[in-house]
Amino acid sequence: MSTREYDLIVIGAGPVGENVADRAVRGGLTAAIVESELVGGECSYWACMPSKALLRAPAALRAARDVAGAAEAVTGGVDVAAVLARRDRIVHDYQDTSQVEWLQGAGIDLVRGHGRLAGEKEVTVTAADGAVTTLRARHAVAVCTGSAALIPDIPGLQDAAPWTSREATGVRTVPSSLIILGGGVVGLEMATASTALGSDVTVIARSTLLGGLEDFAGEAVGAALKGAGATVLTGHGVEHVARSSDGVSVTLDDGSVVRAEEILVATGRVPRTEDLGLEHVGLEAGSWIRVDDTMRVPGNDWLYAVGDVNHRALLTHQGKYQARVAGDVIARRAASNDVDTSAWSALAATADHSAVPQVVFTEPEVAAVGHTEASARDAGIGVKVVDYDLSWVAGASTHSDRYEGRSRAVIDAERGVLVGATFVGPDVAELLHAATIAIVGEVPLHRLWHAVPAYPTVSEVWLRWLETAGL
């Protein structure tokens, strides 16, 4: 057993852990990062990047088919082998050499193996060969281990060897048919990709699609999936799952049976904290880790939990935002500098989650930030809702011959500011950041009136929102 000492120890070398360590090192600290799998984490190899790689070719083909002049040049469908090969290039053939080189260039030491908390400011790392290294932190330990797919307690499901997002994004042979349990982001993105790649897809959701977003978002994606040939079953529970030599069968709560070659479970996430040694620091193994707005764990002034593990927002970009805050705060506290923990601190010492942006890369795309109409009303905000059909703006007609889209602005009527925005339509992800800035900056609507959108672009919807709101 060897022992090493650093100012900061980070458990988990995904984008979140990398950013915590990088910001702390920039602040003058030494840091080691512990990783048992690939440096770059879930997002780089099994989630964000490979899933978007699978979705891009079908989206590009759809865009071409929707424009006269380009449509005539389209003579075939998606080349599945080429899509999978491009996916492999984007994930660097599941090799992390470039990510390791980045760590080295940033001055961050990598310790390979499974890290566990052994006590205050102490982490033990067990390598693949069984060798154990003890790491001691002078100032802080940051847990950045992310989350894993939830496998619900459905009779027969575990024995049916279900896919999770890892198997779905890393697919080598596209199944002829696929059952997807779950109507959330992962389930619908994979339904979109799998249908385009040739699978006969059935989506089974206990309630509606894309719950938590505006209702029209899930309705539009569901309609598009059906139009592409998928089956979408909402409001159905699953009673039993069984695998046989013929594939997988799923018995629904109405007694009907759905069969397919494979089954993908996309019903939620659980924290990767089960075998982390949380019990050694007074926390519950397998639990989400509660933190304050600096990402520090109450009762442990040396321990931080950043990204998915704190359950504030299970999105890579939000985790990286938290990581920048945490890394800076750790460095400041190590130097005995004051940390301003007030909201919107000028030193960016706290992470706010009132305006979380999210994109669902389905067909059509869904982009949303801040409140929905329902969540704003639940929060006691006196809202004014502005709906506008995106196909009515001039930019839509030049973008596509068959443009269909919808948008909603949720306005705090008393303060005269935007508190929520949702866009549904082709390539609407590019509209989202303007809405995020308007909400985070609390830009008054009368000031937004002077932010003139270029013509002809789909961004002209901003002008139409303001006109419809009475400005």
From TrEMBL:
Cited InterPro entries: Class-I_Pyr_Nuc-Dis_Oxidored, FAD/NAD-bd_sf, FAD/NAD-binding_dom, FAD/NAD-linked_Rdtase_dimer_sf, Pyr_nuc-diS_OxRdtase, Pyr_nucl-diS_OxRdtase_dimer
Coiled-coil residues: none
Cited Pfam families: Pyr_redox_2, Pyr_redox_dim
Domain (FAD/NAD(P)-binding): residue spans on this chain: 6-317
All residue ranges annotated as the Pyridine nucleotide-disulphide oxidoreductase dimerisation domain in the record: 356-462
Keyword vocabulary terms for this entry: FAD, Flavoprotein, NAD, Oxidoreductase
Enzyme class: oxidoreductase
EC numbers on record: 1.-.-.-
Cofactor(s), by name: FAD
GO molecular function, one term: oxidoreductase activity
Family named by the database record: Belongs to the class-I pyridine nucleotide-disulfide oxidoreductase family.
Name of the featured protein: NAD(P)/FAD-dependent oxidoreductase
The organism of origin for this protein: Microbacterium gawkjiense
